[in-house]
Write a structure and sequence with these properties.
By secondary structure, the protein is mainly beta. Helix 1 packs across helix 7 and helix 3 crosses helix 5. It is globular, with a radius of gyration of 30 Å. It starts with 23 loop residues before the first strand and ends with a strand.
Length: 922
Amino acid sequence: MVRTRRIWVTAAAVLALAGGVSGTTAHAQQAPAATASDGKLPPGWHIDRGRQAPQLVWRSGRRVPMGDARVEFRADGRLLGVPKPERDGHTFRLGLDGERAGALKNLQVWSGGRRLDTRPGAHAAAPSAAVRPPAPLPANPVDPGKPGPYRTKTGSYRLKSVRLPGFSVPVEMQAVVVAPTGVSGARPLALFLHGRHATCYAPHGGSDDASGAWPCPAGTLPIPSHRGYLRDQRLLASQGYVTVSISANGINGQDWQAEDGGAQARSSLIRLHLAQWADWARDPRHAPRIVREAPRADLSRVLLIGHSRGGEGVNRAALDSLYPPPAGQDGYHGKVRWHISGTVLIGPTVFGQNPVPDVPSLTILPGCDGDVSDLQGEVYVDGTRAISKGKALHGAVYVIGADHNFFNTEWTPGQAQAPAEDDFFDDPDHPDPVCSPRAATRLTADQQHRAGSTYIAAAARLFVAGDDKVRPLLDGSGRRAPSADPARVLGHAVGANRGAGFLPDGEVTVTGGRLCSAVDPDPAVACLGEGATGVSPHFAQWETAREAGRHAIALRWTSAGTPARIRVARPVSLSGTEALALRVFVPPNSRGTSLDVSVTDSHGRRATLGRVRLDGLPGSDRTASYWARELRVPLTAARRAGLDLRSVTSLELTPRSGSGRAWLMDAWGWRPGTPAVRAAGLPRVDVGRLTVDEGDSGVRTYHVPVRVSGRGSGQVRVYVVDPATGTAKDRLVTVRPGGHDIDVPVQVRGNTRYGADVPYDVLVKAVHGAVVGSYLGGLTVHNDDPAPTVTVTPLADRVTEGSALKWRISLSEAADTDIGALFVPVPVGSGGTELSTKDVDPGWLADVSGAVPDPERPLSQVDGLYLWLDVPAGQTSLDVTVPTVRDQVGEPAESVTFQQTNDGGNPLPGGLVLTGTVLDAS
C-alpha cells in the first residue's frame, strides 16, 4: 500500500489542554472549525481514530474526478503521503504512520501541481489583455497527419484475466485492434495504453455515479477507455501499422495501493499482450479472429503509446524489456521477443522520474492540462541527460490550449459512452484567460485530437519507419504539421545528433546570473522562487522537498548589456556540429526578449554567434507555461573568428532588451539527422520494502532490501527519509550488479507499548550510467502491541445550567501515539428533551462546528458538530467538558448524547457513549 512516508504528527493541539499528572482537561473541539496557523486543522480536515491506526481525512466540498495525477497531502510544504480515495469522490484518507514531531501545520491537498483545497481562480488576477496564440510556424514539407493508402478493419479480443503482483483482483486482458487491409508482409505494431480514469458508470446516471470500483458493481458497466484512441489507430493503420489498444480498468481500480502508482503493473500488462502477439505472429491458428485477419505483426518494430499513467506504464515496459525487473515484482516472466523502437507519452505522469535513456521518446504536453497540470512529463526529456550515450532522441511538444482528457474520445463530453468532462475546471466568475472554453488559445476537442493523432503518427514515422524528414516536427527545429492546424505546437529535444554541451547539472561556474535549484523550499535558491505566475514543467517536484543535482541558470536584468557567463570545468567540443541549440524560457505572456549568444575557447578567443529572440508562452496562474523553446544559432561566426571548437570553455548570454528574466536549461552542439540507437548495458536498481515487527525488547538491525542487476557500473542518488522530521538526506552512490553499494541499516528497538507503524523510506534516482525501476521502498517497523482499552467515566453528567458537563476518557495504559475518537451528537431517547444550541456556550459551539445558536435547534441537528477527543501519547486520560449557559427560561431537564463514530462519520453501534443531563437553575 502507499504509506505516508513522513510522520504521524500529534493532533493534541486541537484540544485546549490544561495539565494534570494523571490526565488533562479540555473543551472538546472540532478540527475543521480551526485554522492551520495555530496548529489546528483547517476546514475539511479531521483525524479518524475509528481504525487500528489513526487516519488523516480530508473531504472536498466538490467531487474530485478520478484522474491520473496522484492526490497528495502536504504539511508545511512536505509530502505527507498519498491518500486512499473513498468511492464517494469527496473523501480521502491517509494512514498516519510514524512518530510525533510537532503539529500538522499548513495542510494542503495537491494533485499534479495544483491545489485541490482552494477554489480555482479565487486568487487569480484579471488579465490585462486577451491572451493570443503565437503565430504559426513554417510548414514541414512532410505531413504525417495525412491518411495513408490502406483501408482499415476493426475488431476486438478478450482473453483470460491475469493476476498481477500486489493486486488482489485479476486484471482484464482485453483490447481493440485496428489493422490495415490489402497489405502484404509483416507490419509494425503500435500498442496504446490509456491512463487512470473512472472504471465504471451507470448507463442512466451522471458523473457522480462513475466510480473507480473493480470489478464493476451490479447495475454499472465498464468505461471503455481503451476505445478512446480509435481515430489515432485508424490513421496509423491507414499508413500500414497494426494497432492495438489495451484495457487497464483492473489496474485503475486497484493502483491506489501500489507505491509506484501502478507503473510496474501496467508494464506487466503491456508485456503480457506483447507476448501474446509474439505467439500469434509465430502461429496464428489460435489467435482471435481480428488478429488472424490482420497482417502479421512485426515485433521487431514496436511503438508504445501511453496516455497519462499509461505513459508511465509504457516507459516502464520499455525499461523492463531492456533491463528485467525483479521476478517477485513482475507479472510477466517470459522471454523478451520484441523490440521497442520508441514511445509516445501523452500528458504522462512520471512519479519515479526514471525515464529510459536509450529508447527514443516523444512527450506531448497539453498546455491546459487540468489533471497532470504540472506537466511533469517534461522529465522524460530532461531526466535523460547524461544518463547514457545520448543518441536516442527525446523530444517534447507543447500543445497550446489542449487539456488532458480530450486526447481520448471516451473521456470527451459528447463523444464518450460514459459521462465525461473537461478536466480543466474553469470558474465562471474567474475565467482563465488561456484555458477557459471561450479563450482564443483554447482548442476544441476535435482540434486537439487531430493534433494528437498527427504527432503520434510523426513519432511512428521517425522512430519506427526511420523517416528523418519528419524529425523537424519533433526535435525543436521550428516546423509545424499542417494536419494539426489550427493547434499551435512548439517543440524542443535532447539527444540524437546533439553533441557535448553546457549542462547546468554538471560542473559549471556562473557569473552575471544564478545557478538555481529546480526543487528547493528556499525561494532564494529555487529557480522560480516567489512571484511566479504558474509553474514550470522543468521544475516538477518529485518525492522530496529539496532535490540535489537538478539545476538551471536564472538570468535577471534591469538594463541591456550585462552578460551572464557560464564556464565549464572541462572544455566542451562543438567540433562537427552546425549550430548551438539552446533551450531557454522567459515569463509567460512576455514579449520581445533578445539575447546575444557568444562562446569563448580555451585560448581566450571569443565570438558572438548571433542574436535570439523569444516570447513567453500564453499562460496564467493555473498553467505550466514556463517551458523552454529551442533556439539555434549557427557556429559560422566562431569558425570565421578562428575559435578552436574542440575546446570551448564558456557560453555568454547578453540581454539586449531593456529588462527581463530568462532561464537557460542547457545548450548543445547540434547537427541534423537521427542516429541509430543501441541500448547500453547498464546496471538497474530496484528498492524493495521490508516490514518487520518491533518486538518486545532488545535492539535489532535490519537492512533495506536493494537489488542491483544488469551490467557495468553507474551512479545513482540515494535519499533516506527521516521518519521523525520528514526530511531527506542524499548521497551519490556508485552501483554494480550484485553489489551491496546501497546499504541502509535501520536499528529497531523493541517495546511493549502500543504505537504507530514507522516507515523508513528510501528513494533512488539515476544520475549517470544506470537505470532505476522500483524507485521507492524501505523498511516499515510494524507495531505488534495491542491498543489500550478506552473507557468513559462521567465526572459531572448531571449538572445545573451554567455548569459544565464533564467526562473522563481513560486508557488502560499509556501509548506511544495519540489515542482518540470522534463523537457525534445523536437524538436522545423518546420522551426526552435534547440540549439545544442556546443551552451551550456560543464560543464552544462555534469552535466545534462553526455554527451559531440561532435558529435554536437540537445539537444533533447541527451540521458538522463533532467532538474530537484525543489522549496525547504518554498520558492515560483526558477530561472533556461541554460548557452550558444559564438562562431565565423555565424548562424541563435536558439531555445530550454523544456517540463514537465509525469510519464514515456515522454513529458506531456498540461504541463509546457520553451522556449528560442539564437541570433548570430556577
